[in-house]
Structures are given as C-alpha cells and as structure tokens.
Amino acid sequence: MAAPIHADEHQLLLEEGAQPAGGAGRKVRGLVAAGALLGLAAAGTAASFAGAFSAQHPGVATSSAAQRGLVAEFEDTGIFGNLSAFLEFPRGIGSDGLSKATLEGMFDGVMEKTGASSNLTKSEAAAYKGRFVDAVLNSAGDSAMETAQTAIMEEKPVMPEKMAAAINAADLGYTVKPVATTVAAAKVLLGLRVPRDLKLEQPARTRAVFPETFDAREAWPRCAGVIGRVYNQGHCGSCWAFSALQALDSALCIADPRFNESDSSLSRGFTASCVYDRDGCQGGYPPDAWEYVQDTGSIPSTACVPYFAEGAGSEHFQKNGHSPECPSTCATGSGLSWSSSLYRPLNAGLGGAEYSSFRYMKKLLFERGPVSMGMPASFLSSYKSGVWSAGCGTQPNHAVTAIGYSGDDYVVVMNSWGAEWGDKGTFKGDPCVISVFWKMGKIDMDAKGYVFASA
Questions:
Q1: Same-domain check for residues 108 and 220
Q2: Most buried residue, 120, 121, 362, 417, by most Cβ within 10 Å?
Q3: Whole-number mean pLDDT of the chain?
Q4: How many domains does the chain have?
C-alpha cells in the first residue's frame, strides 16, 4: 500500500494565493468521525479513544455536549479497537479440537474483556458471533488462530445501530444509517490502488476567478445525462474504472455533441477486463485506464460490451466477482459490429498528473468538466445525507468522480454504487476528503474526428 496522503487544504490554498473560507477558524465538519472511530486499531481504553478522537477532529468544538456524548458512548468499548489482541485459545485444545462451542466461548470472552457487546444490539452481536464461528470452522488448511484473529476484526458490522445513532446526534455535518455489512465485505468495493511512489504535483499559482457554485450538469446541459448517469459497479472492486470513464465520457460529450445519446457510454466491463488482464475487480488506478486507451487507440461502447457484474446498490457489499476475459467482439445479441463500436478519445492518456488542491480541482471542473478523484471511504457505505468528512487524512481507497462544488464547503461527487445509495447515487464531500485527483489529457479531434476508431 502507498504511504498515507491527504490534502492539507489550508496550506495549499495559501500557497496559491487564496484564503481558506472563514479564515483559520473555519469549522471542518468532523474530520474523521465514523472512519476514525471505527478505524482506531489501538483504541482499547477510554483515554486512547478520547485522545484519538480529539486529535482527529481539530475543527470540531470539543466542548459541545454532543461531541462529549459521542466519545462517552464508545470510550469503554473495544468494538472499534484491536479485538484480536484479546482473543485466546483455551489451554490444552489444539486447532484440530476446536468446536462451535469452543469458538463461541472464545468470542464471548473477547466481548466480556473489551465491553464490545455494549455497542451492539442483541441481533448484531448474534450475527457477528455466527460469522466469526463460521469463518474459523470453514477455514480448512489455515491456521485456526490466525483465521480467528482475522475473523474477529473483519466480521464486525461496518456501522452498528448505536454507532449510527451517536453520530447522528453529534451534529458532525452529515447523517449515516446502520449498515450490517461486514468490514471485510465493504473492502471489496474499495478498489483504488495508489502507487507507492505517488508524488502530488503542485499547480501553478493562479488568479483565476471561478463561480461560487458550479455543477457540470448545468454548465453543459446537453451532456447532463452523460455527466450525471448513475452506475453500479456490482460485486467488483472496479471503482477505478467507473471513475476514470465517468470523467472520460463527460469529456467526450463536452468535446462533441454526438456523444450525448441515452446509450453514450464507454464500456466499464471492457476496461475492468482488459487494462489489468482480467484482474480489474481486484482494484486499479484511474490514469491506467486512460493510458490503456491511449496506447491501444480505442475503447468500445457499453452497448457493445455490457458490464458483467450484477447486484442492486445495497447487495454489492456482500460478495465479490471477477472480470471475464478481455473481449474482441461485441456481445452476442447486441446487433453491433466491433469496428463501428470503438471510440477513439485522442490524447486522453496524456494526462494523469496527481494533485490534491481543491482550488485547482475547481479550475479543472470549471474549464474541462468532471474530475476523477481518490478518497478514503471505508465507511462511506453508511452515508445518508449532509457533507461527508469521515476519514479525512487517511489512506485513499476508493475512486469517484467530482462533478461540481459549492464554495469552499463541499464538492459534489458521483459514486458508482447504484441509484439507491446516498442521494440518488451522489453525495457531498468536504474538501478534506480529496486525497488525490487526476488531470486527464485534453481530448483532441483530428481531421477525421475522434468518435469511431474505424473512421
């Protein structure tokens, strides 16, 4: 994994000659909130939990009753800490002698030592225990102790009911809903793989003036359907492909009015299958998609190569899929020929530079359209409404697409988890969640036009 990166928004804006909104006292809404609370691996005591919470919420008024209540609600529990450290095998029993009853006793011991069960409803605790026991019993050939240590951490629910209620009462600027999905299952959909040698570029100083609010769907109304089209990546860690192609689709439409039909869409399935030789469901990097198109010269439409992963917006957290072989013909029954379904977005792969400055993102949005971006999203599945700020400053693991902004308050983002998720497939993100974004090459049209590779 790459070293953690994040956007130091105030510093970047100051370097570019701008002032952060509201001055130094600007309230940043709960910089880590759910992400930090659930991700505090070492938070096994009240002191460490409260200290970590305060350190990761520098912009939140720690004196507020709501904030104190949120910390107090969870300071004595180990549900968000390293439960594996409290897991013990009964003496005299080897891995071959483990039974359901023995594993249930081990689980109950962890709950008792950490107080973790106090933050779970009875049904949540029972389901958690069942998943833990099944994971260990079904791990033939693996070390039972190692499997148990992994399972006690990864079979936790992402957002327990009590946690959701406490966050919603704490006025963090956003609301969440309970999510029974396990931590392990949620990870499957977070497919951003950031290079170890990532180096963020520093944009040139600019005095450019941008509108206070901006929405690419309104700026290019004939492309609103393309820019705002909601996709579902299904049971596959292909968020990187959806993010890259949401930006590329938008750029094509903005460049040429022919790419604005109801079926104007580049194939996410082709991208996930071909860029990494069938490994696209295991994650990827958006610029790699643009570079692949640049190197090969073309990419088919979704009508030619439909997306292969299925699943409603809430279901895709439950299982994973694998991409099929890279196709060279259109799907049977599509009625389309391969040569007439290939698009040629010239120069798209000549970009790929990485940035994190919110001001520079605004410039790209205003001048070019939607921007592919990476963010921390380990608990984004629980988002319901408001301006999401959980996880700021932590490792980015999910790729999405920025399509607008409102002052320095938030960026409007398209996700790829279906229309049933969030605000009809979109959400508002605090600028602090912008860990990195990518500048795609500017689409160029030659004398023949870019649309069909066979033209």
A1: no
A2: 417
A3: 80
A4: 2
Q: What is the pTM of this model?
A: 0.81
- Does 53 share its domain with 128? yes
Token look-up 């398209």 returns 414
Instruction: Out of 57, 119, 168, 239, pick the active-site residue.
Output: 239
Model confidence pLDDT, tens digit, residues 176-216: 999 999 999 888 899 999 888 777 887 777 777 889 999 99
User: Which residues partner with 437 through β-bridges?
Assistant: 355, 373
Q: What is the pLDDT of residues 309-368, one digit of tens each?
A: 854 333 433 444 678 899 999 999 999 999 999 998 888 888 767 888 999 999 999 999
Kindly state whether residues 336 and 433 are assigned to the same domain. yes
Is 320 assigned a catalytic role? no
Q: Which domain holds residue 294?
A: 188-439
HEC letters along 94-148: CHHHCCHHHHHHHHHHHHHHHCHHHHCCHHHHHHHHHHHHHHHHCCCCCCHHHHH
From 57, 330, 398, 432, active-site residue: 398
In a domain, 52, yes or no: yes
SS (H, E, C) 24-70: HHCCCCCCCHHHHHHHCCCCCCHHHHHHHHHHCCCCCCCCCHHHHHH
In a domain, 446, yes or no: no
Which of 235, 253, 415, 432 is catalytic? The answer is 415
Tell me the residue type at 239: C
Q: In the chain, count of helices (H) and strands (E)? A: 15, 13
Which is it for strands 436-439 and 353-355: parallel, antiparallel or unpaired?
antiparallel
* CA distances from residue 393 to 7, 16, 21, 374 in whole angstroms, order as listed: 7, 21, 19, 12
- Local confidence band at 16 (pLDDT 50, 70, 90 cut-offs): very low
Whether 167 and 206 map to the same domain: the answer is no
239 classed as catalytic: yes
